[in-house]
TrEMBL record:
Entry's Gene Ontology BP terms: carbohydrate metabolic process
Organism classification: Bacteria, Pseudomonadati, Verrucomicrobiota, Spartobacteria, Chthoniobacterales
Record GO terms (molecular function): sialate O-acetylesterase activity
Alphabetical keyword list: Coiled coil, Hydrolase
Record's protein name: Sialate O-acetylesterase domain-containing protein
Provenance organism: Chthoniobacter flavus Ellin428
Residue span(s) of domain Sialate O-acetylesterase: 346-445
Ranges for region Disordered: 304-326
Pfam families according to UniProt: SASA
Coiled coil: 254-281
Amino acid sequence: MNFHTSPAPLLSRLSFFSKSLAGAISLSAIAHLHADVTMPPIFGDHMVLQSGVPLTVWGWAEPGEKVNVQIAGVTATGEADKDRKWRIKLSPLPENSQPTTMTIRGKNTVVLSDVLVGDVWLCSGQSNMEFGLGATSLKGIKLQDEPQIRLFTVPRSIRPYPSEGEMAPPTPESPLSGKWLVATVDNAMKGGQWQGFSAVGYYFGNFIHAKTKMPVGMIASVWGGTPAQPWISLEGLQSDPRLKGEADSVPRYRASYEQNLKKYDEEMKKWKVEVAEWEKKAGYPLNEYARHVKDWGHEADKLKAAGQPVPPRPEQPPREPRDFANNNQVSSALFNGMIAPLIPYAIKGALWYQGESSASQPLHYQALLPALIADWRKKWGVGDFPFFIVQLPNFIQGGQQPIMPPDSPSVWAAMREAQKNIAAAVSNTDLAVTIDLAAIKVSLHPWDKWDVAERLSLLARKKVYGEPNLVAHGPVYKSQTVEGNKVRITFEPDSIGGGLSLDNPPLHLYYAVELPRPSTPPQDLTGFVIRRSGQSFRGSQSLHRQDNTVVVSSEKVANPVSVRYDWADNPHGDLYNKEGLPAGPFRTDAIPLGTK
C-alpha cells in the first residue's frame, strides 16, 4: 500500500531536506494529494495496533470531507478540518493474532491488509539501539521467520518543527524504512539503518512473543552518535529550568533556518530561470539538467562543432539550509522528525538505549532524561507507560589501562549511576544492567544484543506481563554495615533470587567474539574497592559471601567507611545471582563526583 505525505506541509516546505522528493513530485502529483484521503506511513499493511486502549487514526483529506474508519467490527467517523487534517478515535480492540483489515473511506477508499492487534513497543536511542541484527554475529542463535512479529524503522529525519505524521522518504542505506515489515529473517536482516533491524528491538520482540503468544510490533526510531537533547520536544525542554540552555537554543536555530530558507528560495528561483534559459537554448529538458551541468564542456564542444552558439554554463543548484539538515545534535530536531510522526499511534511502552554521547554530563542527564520520559508520556497521552533504560556497558577508551586503578575517576561509572538514579526516581521505569556484556572484546558497540534484550524482557515480564515474583535483576545494593575492619554489603531480597554467585559473562557473548567460554566459574570475587575516611579507595584483599551478603576488607584499610563495586569505565566484577544476572555498579559513599 503506498501512502502520500501530508499535502499542506508539503506545499509550504517542499524544499525542506528533500532534494529527491522535490525532484520526484510534480505539481499535478501535489494536486492529486489534495483529492485523496491519505494517512501517515505508520499506518500500513502488516501493522500491529495496540490492544486494549482507545486508538487514534489520523490523516488528511479535502476540507469538510467525511472520513470513516472500520476495523474488526469497530467503526467511527470524522471530518477533515480547514487545514485538511482529520483525526478519529476508535474504541479499544482486543488482542487478535488473526490478520484483519482496516478500511478508511472518504471520496476514495484505502484498505490496509494483514493487520494484527497486540502490543507495540518503541525502541529508541543511539547506535547500540540502532545496531542491526546482521551485525551481531551470534553463532549460537538460529533465526526463523516470525509472522506474529512486525518491524517498523522510522527514516532518519531532522526537522525544526514537529511533524504531524510525515516521514522522510527511504534512503539507499535504509530502503525498507518507513513501512511495516513481517519479521521474516530476510526482512529482519535488511530492514533498519545498520545491517538490519535493531537487534535489541528484534530480540526483545521475540522474547515477549514467545512468552505471551500475542502479536508484537517493534518500532525503531534511532540514530547513532546522538545525545539525548535532540530526542525531546521544545516543550519538554522548557519544563525544567535546568534545561534552559537547550530550550533557548531551539528558537535560535529555527530563526536561523527560516532566514536561510528564505535566501535559499530566492536563489532557487534565480536558478530555475537560468535552467529554463539553458533548456530553451540548448534543447535539453529540465530533468536532465544535473547531468548537463557536469557534462557542459562536452556538450559545448558539440554545439560549437555544429556551428551553434554556446549558452552560458548553468551553475549548480543552491545548497539547502544547513542549520538542521546535517545536524543531528540540535535540541528537539530528532523528536520533531522521528518521534512526533509516531504520536499518537498507541504504544505499550518504550526501550531506551542511549548515554554514550551524554556520558560527559551525568548530573545534567539526571534532569534531561526524566524530562524526556515525562515529555513522551504527556505527548502520547496514554499515562505513565513503561520506560526501560539500558545501563551503559563496560568500555575502554583508547589508551586506557584494561583495569583502571581503584581511585581513578570514571565518567562512565558516574553516568551509570545517573541512569540507576533515574530508574529509581521516575515512576514505571526500570534498568537493564549490561556491565558484563563487553567483558571479552571491549567495544563501544558490544556485539551481544541477545542478553540486552533478554534482560529488558525480564523487566517487561515482571512489570507489564503479570509475573511480579520473577527475578528480573541481578543483586541490587541495599545497605552496608561496618563491622570493625570489615564492611558487610546486603542486597535487596527480590534481587538475590536463588542466591549470590560467582559467574562468567553470558554464553552468547562468547558466541559473539568466537572465543571458548571457561568451563568453570571464577573462584575469587572481584570488583570491590574499600576506603577509610580521608583515604583513597584501595583494592580489597578479602572478599567472601556469607548468608547472601558480601564481606569486604583489606589489610591496608583500617576502620573502613565505604565500598564501591565495578566503579570504573571497564570493570571486571563477577558477582551475579544464580539466575545469571549481574550485580550493577554501586557505591556506598556520597562523595561528590566532580562531574557536570
